[in-house]
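debug: dumping io for the single-chain case to check the tokenizer round-trip. Nothing else runs in this session.
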Amino acid sequence: MSGDDEWTVARYLATRLEQVGIRYLFGVPGDFLGPFLTIMQATTGVRWIGTPTEMGGGYAADAYARVRAADVAPGGREAGVGAVAVTYGVGAFSLLNSVGGAYVEDVPLIAINAAPSYEQWLNQQAVGLLTSHMSPRRESNLDVYRQVTVDAQVLSNPGLAPSQIDGAITACLTERKPVYLEVMEDLWHAPCAPPKGELRAHERPFTQRNQQMLDKAVAAAVELIRTFGTPIVWAGEELVRYRLEDELLEFVQATRMQFCTTVGAKSVVSERHPLFAGVYNGKASLPEIRRTFKNAGCRIGLGTWSTSKNLGGDQAIGDDWIVAARDGVSVGARYFPEVQLGRFIPALRTALAGQTFPDDHFALAHAAGLDVPASRAEFLDSLSGDRYPEELTYDSFFQHVNSFLEERATGGDPDAPSPFTVVSDAAFALLGSMNLRITERAGFLAQNSWLSIGYSVGAATGVALGRQEPMKRPLVFVGDGSFQEICQELSTQVRHHLRPVVFVLDNEGFYGIEQMLVSPCYYRERPSDGADFYNVLHPWRYEKLAEVFGTEKDRMHGFELATHAELDALLRDIADPGNDINHAPILARVRLSRHDYPRALQYKIDENCP
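debug: decoded output
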């Protein structure tokens, strides 16, 4: 145990975690990790949140980093970073998927891998003795994590450990991506120097050459806008990652340009903003949004990542496109490298000073004869409703939930803060939830590029612990196949009284999205058997898991929903803060037809099934 004046490697690392704003460390313990957790508990305010699986711990840390980054003021002392810790080999390889997702989606994460001692490695080298979880290849763990981190270190010398820890965390803050620290067990109690100074991100210098390139990119962008006219903005992920929400607001308010967002940037600002025009997701958008977006004279992508899931086959870069992302700007066929997004947006706003583009793109598309609502307001109002079929469908379910979020959960006040953070899984859940109208900035969370199924269930733990305002709780939408991957993470939420509301979309035990991607004609032909054998899941009574994970002391509530009347009754109870069910997690099984699918995917059937 470390005394008040004694500094060890374990205390040093734990203190650095605390200094960058980490309050919770997620993961699965083991004998190599135990000494670190003991010292962390005794010397810092960082608290351990044990999870049933390493992958779930990684998802929780990922989501914790995302919501903390969104909630901390730009330039604040806390950085919005997550941390997860596991034991060597079996734990580290199980965690790899989660860290890979954070790497692809630019989430700052510190992955700690507690390794066998230096002495044990020498035994392995000399006589081939393998300690538990050890691989004959000494750098096996390090090698794989080098592929999904911006810095990966093995700590074996206590004298070097402080500089290695500081260097890795600095890289994490600077690059906004994961880093990896593999710490040999005998280092935890080893003495080292105390921390010096504050760790912070380092900005890339802005040179005269950068200014020249920025000026050229802005001039080319202005020329394109003047050539094509009627621009619409497509706001993307980097606005969220680099905390450029204010820059986006200042730009659209100065130019009066309407804006859509990508799925990954959904709720970058409140979707009650009068210029918000929906979520554009390529061919997988609602048809009205896609027609309207493509009818614009030109499109301005700000921080948008082009992935197969947010384009669905549509072309991202064309003669009438501007896209500023990944430290460069494309203007039609021209490309301007090393142009930072945070400088490009205000520079373009300044260059367009005095010019406004107050076009309602839905009205323009409607006037052009396209089958879209006559105005932006009419389209957004259509996403909610009060008339539904008797039985639930994907689209009617999310339409009903949208009405709940906009009206009932806020007591009828559309400007009141939402008591929920929506957390969506991949596949049909994401395509349905992307059109929920989120009234609060950063009120929506999902993986939209890595798309690891089951992410939402583990992520709900990180969201709940990262946002602990009264009644601020995760509202989770997850498919049945995704849920089966990682359902045990609910036990962490029960144990810590985190109170998420989890809707499991049960389409009769079926990987619906996989069937749609491989054979969309299945949904038109509606075969009774045979064509879908490899996408069939074993049916679960999901609502009964509330009895498995809940206890008399730590409760959980389960519900089965097949009709809108049943959904309405549950939503009314959830909207009532005084209702006893809101003191514990809620798991609701939403029963849907195997042949149902979100309307956003109708294009797949129309294009492939004549």
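debug: round-trip ok. The longest strand covers residues 109-115.
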